[in-house]
Design brief:
Helix content: 55-70%
Strand content: 15-25%
InterPro entries: CBU_0592-like, cNMP-bd_dom, cNMP-bd_dom_sf, RmlC-like_jellyroll
CATH topology of the largest domain: Jelly Rolls
Keywords: Membrane, Transmembrane, Transmembrane helix
Number of helices: 8
Pfam families: CBU_0592, cNMP_binding
Order of helices and strands: HHHHHHEEEEEEEEHH
Protein name: Cyclic nucleotide-binding domain-containing protein
Strand order of the largest sheet: 1-8-3-6
Shape: elongated
Number of strands: 8
Oligomer: single chain
CATH superfamily of the largest domain: Jelly Rolls
Distance between the termini: 98 Å
């Protein structure tokens, strides 16, 4: 049997060899993708598929099969579309503000999906006293402070101040529960606002982005809890002294 296999291998023509190379590239690319050696959103995977489909299509020149040729032609077209898309994505330029929002909310998001996310929101130049969240009321927008400062008040008590880079409304973002504090600007500020429902819908379509955002929110919450605890300790100390 081995002798027959060896004879078949050495007896292959040029077209057969090219076809085998195509199969090796097909299987190798898919195996590398499953093992995590390749990413589906990189150049390598579509290029390997392009080589594989092109090789198999060339091998069909000896024994032409219209159905197989159609499939391989479709693979070539799809691979070229993927490569072109990646080229365009890599050339997408985000403004400094847009890039900062993307890094803060979902740092691992690719530029094309980051742009789709940013289109759901809006940049706002807010005046002093602009209310981002009101205690006891549902949060409509998740906000990011681009410039300026905001105060956090709870039950008439000032418990903290947040500044550039902070998120507002993230605590009840996923649950839709009422805001736990009132947050308003203490001076003219630049904000990025994104509708909560639109953001949740985007995250549902992009579960990897949801996990990324949860990590960003967790870091923001730790910072706010530390600041709030410090502020409350100071206030309680002042009351005891008085």
């Amino acid at each position: 049997m081995l002798n027959n296999l060896g004879a078949w291998f050495w007896g292959m023509g040029v077209y057969d060899v090219i076809g085998v190379i195509g199969v090796i590239f097909y299987v190798g690319a898919y195996l590398a993708l499953q093992l995590g050696l390749l990413r589906g959103d990189g150049y390598s995977y579509p290029i390997l598929n392009l080589i594989a489909s092109g090789s198999v299509l060339i091998s069909l020149l000896r024994d032409f099969n219209p159905f197989s040729a159609t499939i391989e032609t479709c693979w070539i077209v799809i691979s070229l579309i993927g490569i072109t898309r990646l080229f365009i994505v890599h050339r997408i330029a985000l403004s400094d503000e847009q890039a900062e929002v993307a890094r803060r909310i979902v740092p691992s998001l690719k530029k094309d999906r980051a742009r789709r996310l940013l289109k759901l929101g809006r940049f706002v130049d807010a005046p002093e006293g602009f209310v981002l969240t009101e205690m006891g009321k549902p949060v409509q927008d998740l906000a990011m402070v681009m410039e300026g400062y905001c105060s956090i008040d709870r039950g008439g008590l000032h418990i903290g101040t947040i500044s550039v880079g902070a998120l507002v409304g993230e605590l009840t973002f996923a649950t839709g529960a009422p805001a736990t504090a009132t947050v308003r600007t203490t001076a003219p500020a630049r904000l990025f606002l994104i509708d909560r429902k639109a953001l949740l819908a985007f995250m549902a379509r992009n579960p990897d982005a949801m996990a990324d955002m949860e990590r960003s929110v967790a870091g923001d919450l730790r910072l706010k809890l530390t600041q709030t605890t410090t502020r409350l300790s100071t206030v309680m100390g002042e009351r005891e002294v008085s």
